[in-house]
Amino acid sequence: MKEKIISKASELFLKLGFKSVTMDDIAGEMCISKKTIYKYFCNKEVLIEESTSMVHKQVHQIIDTIVAKNYNAIYENFEIREMFRDMFKNNTDTSAIYQLKKHYPEIYQNVMSHEIEQCSHYFRENIEKGIRENLYRKDLNIDIYVKFYYTLIFHINETTMSEKEAQKIELEALEYHTRAMATSEGILELEKQLKKITT
């Protein structure tokens, strides 16, 4: 039952927002009493912590699945972006990360410390892969580019209220990041991926 509550709460939080969803809403959606929820979670904050942790795991499992398909480095980044777009397409117009930062800053800080660590790992592996594939320049300072990119991405999510707007800016950031690193071969692959989005 605990897992079912976390799963339903995660779905509602992402769809309607962390602030607006109440324990009553979750109980009503699941056709259980609020008392049942409080049996497992002493308050809403604890439930939000568990829910964000579950979403975090799901996101990284999907990223691992995409990475395992062994696409080239640029294609891989676009596939990961697509996955995020699909995952959050039924959301409220307000970005989930923006809401979390505004209403539950402590939980947000906790989530972000894990995210930065995980994302830095993915970004680094992607850059190293792109260099091997001759899609990214061999003279890159990998540490700096990893830092640039996660600073850019997290700043967008933290400061952009609209989910739709955040996704639009993230695509621009991905193009910017890729162009900054790409070889002439990498630019051709980037143009191919961008064309797929616009057509």
TrEMBL record:
Record-linked Gene3D superfamilies: Tetracycline Repressor, domain 2
Record Pfam families: TetR_N
InterPro entries listed in its UniProt record: Homeodomain-like_sf, HTH-type_Tx_Regulator, HTH_TetR
Keyword Nucleus: no
Domain HTH tetR-type intervals: 1-59
DNA-binding region: 22-41
A molecular function (GO) term: DNA binding
Domain of life: Bacteria
Keywords associated with the record: DNA-binding
Entries under PANTHER family matching the protein: ACREF/ENVCD OPERON REPRESSOR-RELATED, ACREF_ENVCD OPERON REPRESSOR-RELATED
UniProt name for this protein: TetR/AcrR family transcriptional regulator
Organism of derivation: Flavobacterium geliluteum
Source lineage: Bacteria, Pseudomonadati, Bacteroidota, Flavobacteriia, Flavobacteriales
